[in-house]
Amino acid sequence: DDVYFRAALLPRAVERWKGAEYVGCFRRRGRVRLSPRHTFFETGHQLLGTTYFTYATGSTYAVRSDAAALISEMPPGALRFFGCGDDCSVAMWLVAFNASVLEDGALCRWECDPDTVTVRHHGRCPGLCNPLEDIHRLHVDPRCDASTPTFVESASEGKGGRIKSRRDDMPLWVPPCIITNSERTDTMRLESCGW
Question: pTM, whole model, 2 decimals?
Answer without folding.
Answer: 0.66
